[in-house]
Write a structure and sequence with these properties.
The structure holds five protein chains of five kinds.
Chain A: H1 2-22, H2 25-53, E1 57-61, E2 70-74, H3 76-99, H4 107-122, H5 129-147, H6 155-186, H7 191-196, H8 203-221, H9 230-236, H10 239-264, H11 270-293, H12 297-325, H13 328-363, H14 374-377, H15 379-392, H16 399-414, H17 420-452, H18 459-462, H19 469-487, H20 493-503, E3 512-513, E4 518-520, E5 526-527, H21 529-549, E6 560-562, H22 580-590, H23 592-595, E7 598-605, E8 613-621, H24 625-647, H25 653-671
Helix pairs in contact in A: 1-2, 1-4, 2-3, 2-4, 3-4, 3-10, 3-13, 3-19, 3-20, 4-5, 4-10, 5-6, 5-10, 6-8, 6-9, 8-10, 9-10, 9-12, 10-12, 10-13, 11-12, 11-17, 12-13, 12-17, 13-15, 13-16, 13-19, 13-20, 15-17, 15-19, 16-17, 16-19
Chain C: H1 3-26, H2 30-55, H3 58-85, H4 98-122, H5 131-147, H6 151-173, H7 178-206
Helix pairs in contact in C: 1-2, 1-5, 1-6, 2-3, 2-6, 3-7, 4-5, 5-6, 6-7
Chain E: H1 2-11, H2 15-47, H3 57-67, E1 71-73, H4 78-97, H5 113-133, H6 137-168, H7 173-182, H8 190-207, H9 234-259, H10 270-297, H11 306-327
Classes of the chains: A mainly alpha, B mainly alpha, C mainly alpha, D alpha/beta, E mainly alpha.
Chain lengths: 672, 486, 219, 125, 328
Amino acid sequence: MSTAAYFIGLGAASAAALLGAVLPARRRLLAAAVLSAAACLAALVGAGDVLVSGHAFSVHTAQVLPLTGVDLSLDPLGALFVAATAVVGLAVSCYSVGYGVHATPSRIATATLPAFLATLLLVPAAASVATFMVAWELMALTSLLALLTDHRRRRETRDAAQWYAAMTHIGAAAILLGLVLLAAHAGGQSFAAIAAHRRQLSLPLTSVVFVLTLFGFASKAGAVPLHVWLPRAHPEAPSPVSALMSGAMVNLGVYGILRVGEDLLGGGEMWWWLVVAALGVVSAVFGALHAAASTDTKRLLAYSTVDNVGLVLIGVGAAGALAAGGQQALAGLVLLAALFHLVNHALFKGCLFLGAGALQHAAGTRDLDRLGGLARKMPATAIFFGAGALSISALPGLNGFASEWLLFEGLLQGFASRSAVTVAALLAGVATLAITGGLTATAFVKALGVGFLGQPRSEGAGAAREVGPSMLIGMGFLAGGCVVLGIVPGVVLPVIDRATTAGLVAGASRAIRPGLGLALASVHSEIDPGLLVGGLLVALVVAWGAVRLAPRSAELRSPRRAAAWGCGRDLQTARMEITATSFAEPLQRVFADVLRPDHDLEVTHTAESRYFPEAITFHQRVDDAVERVVYRPVMAAVAWWGHLARRVPNGSVHRYLAFGFATLVLVLVVLA
Amino acid sequence: MLLVVIVSVPLAAGALAAVLPWCRAIGWAMALADAAVLGLGVVLAVQTDRHRAADGLDGLLRADALSAFMVVVIGAVSLLATIQSIRYLEAEIAGGEHSARHSSLYSLLVQVFVACMLAAVLSANLGALWVAVEATTVATTFLVGHRRTDKALEASWKYVLICSVGIALAFLGTVLVYFAALHVPGHPTGASVLDWTSLMHDSHRLDPGVVRLAMALLVLGYGTKVGLAPMHSWLPDAHSQAPAPVSALMSGVLLTVAFYALLRFKAVADGALGPDFTRMLLVIVGLASLLVAASLLLTQRDVKRMLAYHSIEHMGLIALGAAAGTTLAIAAVLLHILGHGLAKAVLFLASGEILLVEGTSEIDKIPALLARRPLLGGIFGFGLVALLGLPPFSLFVSELNMIRGEAAVGLGWAAGLSLVAMAVIFAAVMAHSRHLLLGGPTASPSATSRLVGIPLVGGLVACAAFGLSAWPLQSLLDAAARVVVR
Amino acid sequence: MRFGAAIDVAELAAGIVLAGAVLALWRKDLRALTSVLSLQGAALATVAAVLAVRDGDVGLGVVAGVVLVAKGLVIPYLLARVVRADPGSRETSPLVNVPASLFTAAVLVVVSYLVAGRLTALFPDPLTRLAPLGLATVLVGFFVLVTRRKAISQIVGLLLVDNGVALVAFLLTAGVPLLVELGASLDVLLVVVVLQVLATTMQARFGHVDLDQLRELHD
Amino acid sequence: MQLRHVDAGSCNGCEIEIAQAFAPVCDAGRFGARLVASPRHADGLLVTGVVTKNMAVPLQMTFEATPRPRVVVACGDCAVNGGLFAGAYGVAGSVHDVVPVDVEIPGCPPEPSEITEALRRLTGR
Amino acid sequence: MIGTLATLVATSPGLLARVGASALQVVAVCVGGPLLLGLMGKIRSRAEGRVGPPITQGLLDLRKLVRKEAIRAEHTSAVAALAPLVLVSSAALCAAITPLVTARPVIAGGADVFAVVYLLLMGSVALALGGLDAGTAFGGMGSSRAMTVGAISEPALLVAVLALAIQAHTSNLPGIVNASLSHPEWLASPQRLLALAALVVVVIAETGRIPVDNPSTHLELTMIHEAMILEYAGPDLALVTVGEAMRLGLLLGLVANLFFPWGIDASGGGLAMLVGLVALGAKTAAIAASVALVEVSTAKLRLFRVPELLAGGFVLAAVAVTTGLVAR
């Protein structure tokens, strides 16, 4: 049953892409959206069935893809990622109807979103080197085309597309080389054959393959040294696409690491997984810092994706290290926490990106400094964006808290393990979890508070109106998911537990006791978020009652509306409000050496005298330190090499012939 | 008998073009001739697939699965090119630059060019193969100089000179092989000494020293015609100055015909020396061409030169693939030859159209092509996607399997270097094409004529089809690969 | 003629071919170059004739005739026409001065002996011992191509290479099969015609034929 | 009793005395009086000085910003009846012309003990 | 959630006692908080030679404030109304589940270190959002500073308590307290002392005491915590002050029980609970007095020196954890 459902899903998604390209303007948007929603549902059913029943299915056809044929197989690990993508895809396809209504997008735009969705559903099911690489590159191509929807209007979109294409291709080349080397030595290019031979592979080979594939998958997941495309591509892509990118495509980087590291190479060395954990630590801290410092909503969300992927990588790295160290049960728990956080991240990041899209759609700008006062104008979007923001800051009662608690618990239990290196890694992981918790909270209080509360700081924000119902349904669906998973995580955990056992080479025993809360099997600490929320509500009602019932004279009963207190000034304008830049300024000053903000202050004086400034303009840009330190020099060196090489062929036929002559003589001498 | 027909059809068309004054009907006749060649190629492929080989003209022509495949490639690319040259010639005559007589000379030379290539591919005798390849050089010289500009003259001089020297070295190599064959006891003497089948039969008895020197000369000699590293400098000049259909034909299929010759000699040399010597040679030459292409693509300012350097890169990849030498690698090389032929032809024809319509082929003088000419921009964009080796198109599958072949044979490091070069080239081409294709709408979008659009889109669709479904080619590729590999 | 004398004649002819190549390096006057070429053509034809007589192979005789006509008469005539059109008709200062080129020619001859020597040692036949001469001519011809500025001298260089290859062919294998030999010489003839046409158009258009100035085509 | 001090144009003489009132000697704090930063937190306003034209509106706004039930304490002669500056060109009047006054502390400046005494009448302790 | 409630009621007969204990804890913190503030005020005034307001002044002010009128700024949305309620309820829930009076509160499972830290974070996030809602300059500046300080102090808090959790092999607070009770030799271990130092720094930062923030300042530019609540009046202000007081009481109680666990009621009997309450009161009073003495003797740090102090706290906590791991 699951095979049929999964393939119906794929078929429907590609049909949606086809219809999106073919149908005339008005109907194609709706048709594409409906079909892709149906595709997601079918894929969800298929993946769900695999997850619940635990049996994998596999299909091989030699007709497609010359010379290699196509192998598809969906095991619980892959099914989890398909399910996560399907859930986000469902919300996105419903959202895209409303999003595209005003400026009906071109044929290419409506076609690429379902195509991108189809490839996202395909990648976890690929079961041979060739199929995986085809699906991977198709995903890169469709996401690039989707990113280019409004390349006509903005130069940054074209920059972003160029960066994105170059970096994904380099990543894909690394993965291709790694997998091909593996297939060559493991005799056979299907994952099953490779997995069967994983015992006979020599250590240096498996390490080289792991490092190469890690390079590729980390660049797709957005781990720090290779994350540079993420804060450029996500803000420029249309919101449904960036929601899919952050909610689903980034997960596939983690999927790749797990599939190659655990399934194909059989767990491998401990230092592999410590490298993954180190990547996670650096990404989490760097991402959280930059999220707290950026003032563009989508750029903030992109950096927080880097942060959350860092947390997931810490989990995956710790799990791998523990598994390599022999503690299977604990590794299962930590991996469960990492995958649960991944699913939660897909939900709340998808909801946030759709919210940011609604903001841009209604208020015409993404810059937090020019928003404000939208809570009253767009209450529903404010509630959904708020739910997403609070759950990403891991506040109790929402899904962020549940998965970060599980991750914290797993890492904590790991301290009992013997090897000092693992303990050091776990300590770094917990410290990062702590640091990023505070920074993420700051970033999202800024996004929520400065963006939605106070007075509108631009006429666009002032004229903002609530977005269409379809967009609200999209956001609501994901926000609802966050709340439900927050209150009763026990519903989803057994399913993820089965994916974890499939994920780890030696499989892991049940990490979770059944029940609605988070009850760990291996150790007696457990938490019941449901009860926490219940207690919170009871306390809330009691406090509200206490204040309400206080004896008060009649006319003081209802709260009075008065001008906000501004030290007696009567003219309280929006310009006096705090902006996102000034909100993040103290944090930037504290972490100045990492963020390296560059300010430029121009004071133009009046003609008459130097002492009376006419206008003071202040610009501040926090650009990516990694990009400046790592990428700029590399690009400069390549450009220098290009100019040097250009001077060699100067057009004279004698020089060309001289090349040939020299080679001929050299060859003759060598062969003599 | 079939082989003679294949070679003579284009010759007949050429003769027709020479006699009658040029008009659109003649153009379509040329196209029809090449379509016939393609059809006959397919028939030949089906025939050779069932039983080993067909031969004609009392032993001079011989076709096995490999040459049948090459005939199909030549047919397909020349069909695309001749359809496009109708538009090219009409635009030229309309532009008043050249007379109708000039166009009929053009059509004759093109058909002679196609005939020479077919002869080269179908010849049984390696000497005849050399003669045919030399004839193609002669035929294309005037085609390169067709536009009568100073640059075209300079390009044709360089083209003829470098290629003739290269080909002379190749002849020296052929002579050495002939010398080695003469001294094999029991080898058939007389006309059929250089017959490929007999050489393959006695290849293990050839003298290794002589064959090693011969193979070095052959790789260097034919490498010039293939555009491989040391003697590649003529390629960007010739392809950027030649009219678009001609450069499409040359880049798409002439380079690969020369590589076909190398493949034939490699089979013989492998018999005599074992695979390691030729593998080392081809790896060095392949990596050198990749390095040259990667370095020079970084700062390209002209569309056609960019595409020419891109051909050097793909020839380097094909050399690496052939160096691996397993059946999988050779099958991938052949698929790559077909894919590259189609994609490169489509791109050159599109750049020709850009040159005609925009008046210049400088990248920074043609901004926002997608906005101004959606169909042409789209074709050029998807052509680049195909050329850069992205999935739906067959170049991705062939590159993937070539790298698999190389890794299987222990050339993993070479595959790694080639991937690095391809990544650099990808970034460079992406940077150049970004300015060319993307950008704001300066003027209202104008349509591109159907005559141009349909064949090019057809070429891309074919390239994608060969990339996705294995049906028509799989058996032909395997048969052709087994022909070359011991 | 005793058989031994024929071998000596062939040796002499091969020597003349190599001498011609060295002469091309040395002389600057274009008219002298064309005469050197016709001399080489004749020498080549005699080698072919000697072989034809030795093996009694009629085809080889025909080939000798064709070589004599093509390389001895037609090509030098074509070149002479181009030379007449170019008033200066003196090779300007070549890229590498004459003494240096002569020294490199010597080095090239040593190299070719090294390479070809090992080859011919395998099959001791009086004529094959001469193969290094042919290879030397090829290398010197290539060197002429690389260093001479004038179009005509480049054509001469190319022809030297072709003659060298033909010489090696005759010496090593007593003549490549007839069809291939004819095809080869026909192609060489066509290439020379093409080059001659190009040279004249270049002369008309640019007023000079110095290739070093032709550097318009670069990135 | 939280008070929000408003300087409606005083010569700071009264401010010094108020500071003394809250100093250890008189220590109005022990009777529950406290000066707070925002009128929202205050039960009343401690206004010093004559109400100048510029301070009339801010005083009115501060009064509005204070939650009911609220009191106004006019401290010093200027606040009570304009004192020295009554009738000056920049003066809008004394405090009771702008906001209803509940307690008046005469004296220019009033003794710290008188201020503490007045505050104790308000806090009832 | 209903399912878990049902299982709890069915399984443990002593549930009524534990619910009672938790309720007692909430009330204790509710009343004890303002009293602690009054005590600290009294100690400060005594140190300054003043008599100072009575200790119960805090409770009196609350009673008065509740009866006053609530004022909301024009452009505020529902957030301004909800923020104080969320602050108080999160503090109350924290009080219910942490081991203050008894070591077996009602949701024994829920009393996890992570939950307590993030409930406190929830309170400060609510307060910050409330501050931003009115759209005044002070509210925004206060929220920004409070979140920055919070962002740096929260990791120190988590890692400090982690040091104890590692020692007790569980992150459950009652578990830690019981383990400390049964292993008295842990109390003097270096890792405990370092954790205590780190926790004191964090408590000062979280509750906004002198070295980090001056609660009784009038100069808006220097405020961190006060600026956020400038807009609250009457009942809202009462809720906020009670919330703040409860957080102070809670944190001090937590420090008391984690580091000096004597006297806490482990058995759940009526008398033991009384003893626990008295012990809690005494311990928190002592700690509050010491904090007040620290306040009086030090001047307020410049805002951008505060992160260095908190970073020092974080390093202390990290050192505590590492010494705990090494010494194990």
